[in-house]
């Protein structure tokens, strides 16, 4: 049984998204586990939107094969609730898979389940999360992350990707594909796909360095030293580095690396260009430097991302072809088979 843990002021889609995925998945394969909405106290639980979900009380920890923790405005209180943390720890202690949606990762972190593990959360919370939990290997640019039996996902809709990935792991790609097809959603964003454009995330509200960042993304093949960037910004190198870091929360060199990694990843996943050519075009200079950047940011080298992307594309194409043929056969049968019989009377 899958337990989906909610609490006052939870985010409705964090819960409803995964619930719908497993429900639809179970229609095509009855062995997909049931989902039970659970809370500290049985009864209606009010979400941040005002809509309520009816929850059961907490089951015995060993009754769950998977626990998914929702996120939402109520996470700060839930993450400091001893009973909630004790339950999450107990479920994990019995060997169950434990996952979070969006900022529900804070609850897993407070329970000690993320120490030394790779994890992700909503992109806007990366800096705060990393400051509070320095022992967690934060993966700031991923849709979802799996580290052993602990899964975490990015903001809100990423819980749907998480649930589809779980179904694919447990029951096969075909079942996950069918669930996505019935839900009319993309099948399926890879865990390493970006939650959010690095360029947009780096832009600050006042836009002081926005023109420079846009120029950088179009000229990643250049060396892009701090001296060159500061000259384009019309500032001394020292003042530029200080102002850039203060405004954007990262150094110029790290910002350039993030943009290079984003551009390189897109070409790695969606083109057949050689790795060496991509590394040069993105400004890494050589594949080894790019490989180190990918491992640091994504936890895996470029070749692994490409293999994963191709495997999913092949699985999706195969499933699509099979489903399309089935749909055409069904359509043909409906055309060939009379829906009702009619007769014409003659006098």
Verbal overview:
Helix content is 51%, strand content 10%. It is globular, with a radius of gyration of 24 Å. It is of the alpha/beta class. The strands form 3 sheets. The chain has a 6-stranded mixed beta sheet, sandwiched between helices. Strands 3-4 form a two-stranded antiparallel ribbon. It has 15 helices and 10 strands. The C terminus is likely disordered. The chain folds into 2 domains: 182 residues, Rossmann fold (3-Layer(aba) Sandwich); 106 residues, Homeodomain-like (Arc Repressor Mutant, subunit A). Strand 3 and strand 4 form a beta hairpin.
Descriptive labels:
347 residues, 6-stranded mixed beta sheet, Rossmann fold, alpha/beta, 2 domains
Concise summary:
The protein has helices at residues 12-28, 75-78, 82-93, 105-110, 126-132, 158-171, 173-183, 198-202, 210-218, 226-233, 237-248, 252-270, 275-281, 287-298, 302-336; strands spanning 2-5, 35-38, 43-46, 52-55, 66-69, 97-100, 118-119, 137-138, 144-147, 150-153. The chain has 347 residues and is α/β, with parallel strands linked by helices.
Secondary-structure topology with pairs:
Layout: E1 2-5, H1 12-28, E2 35-38, E3 43-46, E4 52-55, E5 66-69, H2 75-78, H3 82-93, E6 97-100, H4 105-110, E7 118-119, H5 126-132, E8 137-138, E9 144-147, E10 150-153, H6 158-171, H7 173-183, H8 198-202, H9 210-218, H10 226-233, H11 237-248, H12 252-270, H13 275-281, H14 287-298, H15 302-336
Parallel strand pairs: 1-2, 1-5, 5-6, 6-10, 7-8
Antiparallel strand pairs: 3-4, 9-10
């Amino acid at each position: 049984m899958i337990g989906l843990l909610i609490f006052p002021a939870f985010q409705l889609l964090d819960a409803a998204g995964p619930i719908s995925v497993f429900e639809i998945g179970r229609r095509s394969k009855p062995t997909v586990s049931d989902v039970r909405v659970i809370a500290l106290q049985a009864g209606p639980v009010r979400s941040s939107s005002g809509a309520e979900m009816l929850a059961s009380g907490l089951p015995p920890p060993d009754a769950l094969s998977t626990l998914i923790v929702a996120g939402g405005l109520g996470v700060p209180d839930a993450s400091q609730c001893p009973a909630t943390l004790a339950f999450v720890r107990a479920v994990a202690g019995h060997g169950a898979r434990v996952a979070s949606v969006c900022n529900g990762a804070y609850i897993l972190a407070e329970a000690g389940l993320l120490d030394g593990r790779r994890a992700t959360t909503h992109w806007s919370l990366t800096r705060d999360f990393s400051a509070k939990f320095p022992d967690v290997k934060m993966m700031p640019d991923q849709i979802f992350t799996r580290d052993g039996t602990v899964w975490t996902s990015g903001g809100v809709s990423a819980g749907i990707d998480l649930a589809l990935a779980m179904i694919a792991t447990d029951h096969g790609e075909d079942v996950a594909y069918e669930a996505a097809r019935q839900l009319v959603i993309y099948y399926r964003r890879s865990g390493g796909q970006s939650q959010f454009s690095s360029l947009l995330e780096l832009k600050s509200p006042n836009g002081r360095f926005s023109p420079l960042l846009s120029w950088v993304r179009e000229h990643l093949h250049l060396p892009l030293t701090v001296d060159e960037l500061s000259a384009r910004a019309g500032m001394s190198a020292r003042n530029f580095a200080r102002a850039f870091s203060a405004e954007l929360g990262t150094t110029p060199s790290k910002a350039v690396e993030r943009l290079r990694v984003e551009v390189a990843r897109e070409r790695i996943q969606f083109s057949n260009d050689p790795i060496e050519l991509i590394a040069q075009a993105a400004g890494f200079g050589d594949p080894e430097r790019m490989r180190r950047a990918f491992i640091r940011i994504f936890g895996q080298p470029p070749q692994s991302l490409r293999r994963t992307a191709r495997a999913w594309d092949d699985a999706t194409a195969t499933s699509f072809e099979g489903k399309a043929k089935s749909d055409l056969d069904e359509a043909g049968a409906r055309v060939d088979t009379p829906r009702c019989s009619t007769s014409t009377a003659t006098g």
